[in-house]
Amino acid sequence: MSSKPVPASEPSTSPVTIPMKFEIVVIPVSDVDRAKAFYAKLGWRLDADYDNGKDFRVVQFTPPGSSCSIIFGKNVTGAAPGSAQGMYLIVADVEAARNELLGFGVQVGEVFHGGNAVYSGPDQPYLFGRIRVSGPDPENRSYRSFASFSDPDGNGWLFQQITARLPGRIDPATTTFATVPDLAGALRRAEAAHGEHEKLTGKRDEDWPDWYAAYMVAEAAGAELPK
Asked: pLDDT digits over 138-156, tens only?
């Protein structure tokens, strides 16, 4: 019996019937207590710290607003400490996220965006294709602005600013906002867009809550925005 391999460029046509929720990323560290202190300093939620008293320990943290957690510990992975790289943390405001971590005493690289010059600095040079320009994306587009930091072992994290998802990334029926700042930012963008909508129609829209809701859900899902 033989089967035809699916080319990398050809998407699978098999229907997805069972939800598969990405839950855990294993982070290799050399000093469990040092790593625990670092991630606690970030303000991440400590979910578990289990030790069998012999040769196994697992610590679990979850970033604010995240459905995915990290674990590290003793004998939980054979990977070299510091080898986990390019782990993305999605934020609505990369400057605010960076400033918050700086306030916690965490070293965070400058905000950058893609460009045409090859990056040669010491700060995770391989991320984003080694091409970066100082400062956020000039047009403030989603997916384009970043800032990076590392834990004490050198495991590399990357903030990526996203305010509007690409089509298909979010189900409009289950649109949620993970944090108060995320919701507040969406409301402000909806308010500004609604102002343009009223200018276009030339009249006051009394059903603005429905319009706001439609705009916010469409923006989050990457769908066509109401006019």
From this structure: 888 888 899 999 999 999 9
CB neighbour class for 196 (10 Å; exposed up to 12, middle 13-18, buried from 19):
exposed
Q: Tokens 């710290």 — which residue? A: 49
Give the integer Cα–Cα distance in Å for 73 and 71.
Answer: 7
- pLDDT tens for residues 203-221? 887 778 888 888 887 777 6
User: Which amino acid does the sequence have at 10?
Assistant: E
3-state secondary structure of 3: coil
Long-range contacts (CB closer than 8 Å, 24 or more residues apart) made by 223-226? 223/167, 223/172, 225/193, 226/193, 226/197
Which is higher by pLDDT, 134 or 11?
Answer: 134
Q: 111 is written with which tokens? A: 């905000």
Kindly state the DSSP code that residue 128 receives in the 8-state scheme: G
Question: What is the CATH architecture of 21-80?
Answer: Roll (3.10)
Q: What is the DSSP letter of 226?
A: P
For residues 156 and 87, the answer to whether their CB atoms sit within 8 Å is: yes
Closest CA to 161 of 126, 112, 116, 213: 112
List all residues 6 or more positions away from 136 whose beta carbon is below 8 Å from its beta carbon. 94, 95, 111, 113, 144, 145, 161
- Do the strands 156-161 and 87-91 form a parallel or antiparallel pair, or are they unpaired? parallel
Query: String of b and e for 173-183 (b: at least 16 CB within 10 Å)?
Result: eebebeeeebe
